[in-house]
Amino acid sequence: MSLSLSAHLPERDVQVDLEVADGETVALLGPNGAGKSTLLAIAAGLLRPQDGRVTLHDRTLTHVEGGRTHTWVPPHARQVALLAQDPLLFPHLSVRHNIAFGPRSRGASRRTAALEADCWLDRIGLPDLGERRPSAVSGGQAQRVAVARALAAEPRLLLLDEPMAALDVDVTPALRHLLREVLADRTVVIATHDVLDALLLADRVVVLDCGRVVEHGPTREVLSRPRSAFAARIAGLNITSGTWSADDDAVRTTTGDLVHGRLHDDGGGAERADRADRGVPVAGTPMVAAFRPATVSVFPARATGSPRNSWPVTVTALEPQGDLVRVRAGRLSADITPQAAADLAITPGDEVWFTVKATEVDLYPA
Ligand SMILES: Nc1ncnc2c1ncn2[C@@H]1O[C@H](COP(=O)(O)OP(=O)(O)OP(=O)(O)O)[C@@H](O)[C@H]1O
């Protein structure tokens, strides 16, 4: 194993074992507060567990037993790079010098470091922005620079904490594309809420809940046969949140749309979700609605016969999805046949209607 981490941190109720093979990308998935960032902080040496051990390529970085520290390598000496939501570039340095910082700190000459930085600027598609200060580039560009800066330091382990979370949905595909390219063959742990990150970037997923690993395995296996409630909720699904409207017998989303569907109770796993409906939530209960992109039909105008779930959306992207075309509209997506996409002649920016039968929508208390 390249990375082996076992940690117990009682004050955060975290007890986790994690192993990552050499060259493997593992996605840590889990709801808010599950312990994803805590795990990354332990690996990076920003947090000391009560009991635990972190080894990277057989080198012990952390070894603590019962609060007593036996081995502690400080963060800068771990050869571990942590990339957070916020790119945290040095504001007083140019973009080129930010990237050159890694090679310089490895002992490279000024000239070599600058040449390496220029290679990275090309690679991240920003060859002309080297002289700019971080304040003069966009959020998406800054995050690409942060990726280059992290990798230019040649870390043996790269940790990514929700790298896409602070970005507009329009720029996430470009960053995801870059990550796909640069993460191949590196040892990486990426904490994310986004199932697409897991699908596109990770070889394996580890699902955390309440500070424990509740599920792990190859990405597609876990997402196609999820066993934990969280994985079931996010596995390739459209997820939209809102609150229960008793008058409408539906979830009212933050944008005011109503989503009708099949009610489930607390979603305690796929097995339970199959059972008949239980109690109806009280008005105002926070809820999530989940439905598969393949169940969504796309129409140029409101569908006749007006199915109960039909929403006007603006197409933001079209992407191949197996044999189908994924039509993205912000956070929602529909998978349709290439023929249907051609007939509709959809392009990003178009207004269309997404329609889904209530029987295809699962509603869970959030
Ligand atoms: N600085 C902190 N001090 C004390 N407890 C914390 C701190 N940060 C997080 N926690 C607690 O540790 C637990 C794990 O939180 P953590 O931030 O690791 O979860 P997460 O999965 O990264 O969540 P998110 O997706 O919201 O970032 C939670 O119970 C949280 O309340």
Automatic annotation (TrEMBL):
Residues 304-365 form the Mop domain. SMART domains: AAA (SM00382). Pfam families: ABC_tran (PF00005), TOBE (PF03459). It comes from the Bacteria. Residues 7-235 form the ABC transporter domain. GO terms for molecular function: ATP binding. Keywords: ATP-binding, Molybdenum, Nucleotide-binding, Transport. Signal peptide: none annotated. PANTHER family: SPERMIDINE/PUTRESCINE IMPORT ATP-BINDING PROTEIN POTA, SPERMIDINE_PUTRESCINE IMPORT ATP-BINDING PROTEIN POTA. This is Sulfate/molybdate ABC transporter ATP-binding protein. It comes from Promicromonospora kroppenstedtii.
